[in-house]
Amino acid sequence: MAKVSVLGCNEYNYKDLYHTLKQSIADLGGLEAYLESGKRVLLKVNLLMKRRPEEATTTHPLFVKALADILVEYGMEVVIGDSPGGPFNEKALKGIYEVCGYNEILGPKISLNTNYNGIHVNFDKGKLMKSLDVIEILTQVDYVISVSKLKTHGMTRFTGAVKNMYGTIPGLKKAEYHYTMPEIKTFSEMLVDVCYHANPVLSFMDGIVGMEGAGPSGGDPRQIGVILVSDSPYALDVVACQIVGINPLSVPTIERTIERNLVTQENIQLVSDKIEPYYIDDFNIPNIQGVGLLKNKVPKWMDRIVDYVIKPKPVIDKDKCVGCGECALCCPAQTIEMKKQPVIHMKNCIRCFCCQELCPVKAIEVYRHPIGKKMLKM
């Protein structure tokens, strides 16, 4: 049985965070059940981009600080890291660490990852990915712990413990994976392989203030008031989805993990609070239903019309756009041309929405035709 702890915590107050995390770990059987004291552990946090903690895009630094302190007290050496969107180098990470508030949480035996190398590894256990490019720090620690943020996602509906491990793929290599695997089923299969390779021994989720709507960066902060901890990233995502009213089977990564028997909704054991006190019935959840499902409902000759009407597309808000070029830099298909402002050539767009995800000023929206919205309810 996969164990999941769900405990209430309403504020980013260090004392509350520390004691709640301590209790969550105890609920799972204590650190001694998972970690050997004296070893080195990577806290794989979510540092998607330069965003202040209160914007709810990244794992809150106080959450990470409290967890890191608990691990150090147990005898661990802690390295905190991620490979965010965009380049994976000192200049990019230095700015992200600073804006996200991570420079303030360091201490004896708590450091930020400064190894920006990527390495190629074989992975025979992968279903789709028999080899991977990963950040080198993975090979320099004894354990990996996922420390994710509870957020919705425009492409995968939900991003949590499993998708958090995509940050073990270095820099712009993630864009290459997006481009070569544009179909959601294949992409989500790859995400599960990546998580399976990283093999987080524990998974923590910052669900105190999460994000709803156009996540993982363009949505709205939403008070949820929970901390979730599990010995299975797959089980953690199932329970997190249940709390915010997302059908777990509608999340592609969860669907893949169930197909592989990595988790079932029946073999999850809640070892603390029940879900009901924290349930949210009006969480703003993005609709990601694919075009392929709808094509089966219309004649073949209508395929092109369905593509035009149904397929969501990125749209630039010219009033918000500052012309920084970040969208063009991160576009896996290289289909964005920078003039004074970006121009998206839709013919080659693979609808990965990396541009929307990584826009620093939230100037890109995912648009769906009004008729398409109605057809999605067919």
Task: Please supply descriptive tags for the structure shown above.
378 residues; alpha/beta; Rossmann fold; Alpha-Beta Plaits; 2 domains; 9-stranded mixed sheet; two-stranded antiparallel ribbon; 13 helices; globular
Explain this structure.
This protein has 378 residues and is an alpha/beta fold. The protein folds into two domains: 2-278, LarA, N-terminal domain (Rossmann fold, 3-Layer(aba) Sandwich), CATH 3.40.50; 291-375, 2-Layer Sandwich (Alpha-Beta Plaits), CATH 3.30.70.20. It is 30% helix and 22% strand. It has 13 helices and 15 strands. It has helices at residues 14-27, 61-74, 90-99, 161-164, 173-180, 184-198, 233-243, 252-259, 291-295, 303-310, 326-330, 354-358, 370-375; strands at 2-8, 40-45, 77-81, 110-112, 118-122, 131-135, 143-153, 157-159, 202-212, 220-230, 268-270, 313-316, 336-338, 342-344, 364-367. Strands 1, 2, 3, 4, 7, 8, 9, 10 and 11 form a nine-stranded mixed sheet that branches. A two-stranded antiparallel ribbon has the order 5-6. Helix 6 (184-198) crosses helix 8. The radius of gyration is 20 Å and the shape is globular. Mean pLDDT is 91; it is low at 289-296.
Task: Give a brief outline of the structure.
With 378 residues, the chain is α/β, with parallel strands linked by helices.
